[in-house]
Design brief:
Strand content: 15-25%
Subunit structure: Homodimer.
Function: Involved in the synthesis of the GDP-mannose and dolichol-phosphate-mannose required for a number of critical mannosyl transfer reactions.
EC number: 5.4.2.8
Number of strands: 11
Strand order of the largest sheet: 5-4-3-2-1-10-11
Pfam family, one: PMM
Bound molecules: 1-O-phosphono-alpha-D-mannopyranose
Radius of gyration: 18 Å
Oligomer: single chain
Low-confidence stretches: none
Number of helices: 9
Catalytic activity: alpha-D-mannose 1-phosphate = D-mannose 6-phosphate
Mean pLDDT: 95
């Protein structure tokens, strides 16, 4: 039986739990565990559930499984710029619509030149990934291997490559109204200011949820979960791992 769209079948139909993907639901860029799937299925009997991540839907499907649109009430990719409710697509805005082709071209040209001049141990491919509501920029390139991404993360921690890159972009394009967010291991996201994870709240506003829980790992100021975690309508939880998330859920909802 497919779950009700009014959520009246839940013990707490006026409560929603939203999860960041990397960290709270899966280890970084890896896959959801059987245990977490079982926990979420139990939780869904209690309240409404959704995820909100920076990645695009294709990657979230890889991480959360092929039935993701069925297993979550709300699926928010690219912070909610691509959104689904009960498997149905909801309309949202796009990055090019906001920026315009000319300004976008100047930005990408600058990025590619900057990466070409970077002296780093390994470069692979897909340095700019164009998504619906943002671009994702990676100095090593998105199609590096898993060991290569771990190495890059360590190298970046030491050399602050991404931080310097972001400063260069802020200096070059001060009037673009963009936010730069270092959320993962090898890249950073670029999106119009305000299109952070709080963007997804626009899609649930009319549901008038009394409680909105959010689980994130980068909830500190400057982290890509900070804005939604500290939003006045949201009860934020900082977690270190999927196990941490499961523990808090079981305490909160007594199962
Ligand atoms: O969810 C956090 C980030 O995950 C990926 O980052 P990286 O590949 O650098 O680990 C990206 O999908 C990024 O967009 C996202 O914010």
């Amino acid at each position: 039986m497919s779950p009700s769209t009014t959520f009246a079948d839940r013990v707490h139909p006026d409560t929603i739990c939203l999860f960041d993907v990397d960290g709270p639901l899966t280890p970084a860029r890896l896959y959801i565990s059987k245990e977490m799937e079982v926990t979420l299925a139990e939780l869904r009997k209690k309240c409404v559930i959704g995820f909100v991540g920076g990645s695009d839907l294709t990657k979230q499907v890889e991480q959360l499984g092929p039935n993701v649109l069925k297993n979550f009430d709300y699926c928010f990719s690219e912070n909610g710029l691509t959104a689904y409710k009960m498997g149905e697509h909801l309309t949202s805005q796009g990055f090019i619509g906001y920026l315009g082709e000319d300004r976008y071209k100047k930005l990408v040209n600058f990025v590619l030149r900057y990466i070409a001049d970077m002296d780093i141990p390994v470069k692979r491919g897909t340095f700019v990934e164009f998504r619906n509501g943002m671009i994702n920029i990676s100095p090593i390139g998105r199609n590096c291997s898993h060991p290569e991404r771990n190495e890059f993360e360590k190298f970046d921690l030491e050399h602050k490559l991404r931080e310097k890159f972001v400063s260069a972009l802020q200096n070059e394009f001060p009037d673009y109204g963009l936010t730069y967010s270092i959320g993962g291991q090898i890249s950073f996201d670029v999106f119009p200011t305000g299109w952070d994870k709080t963007y997804c709240l626009r899609h649930i506003e009319h549901e008038n949820f009394k409680t909105i829980h959010f689980f994130g790992d980068k909830t500190f100021k400057g982290g890509n979960d900070y804005e939604i975690f500290s939003h006045p309508l949201v009860t934020g939880h900082t977690v270190k791992s999927p196990l941490d998330t499961e523990r808090i859920l079981k305490e909160l909802f007594s199962f």
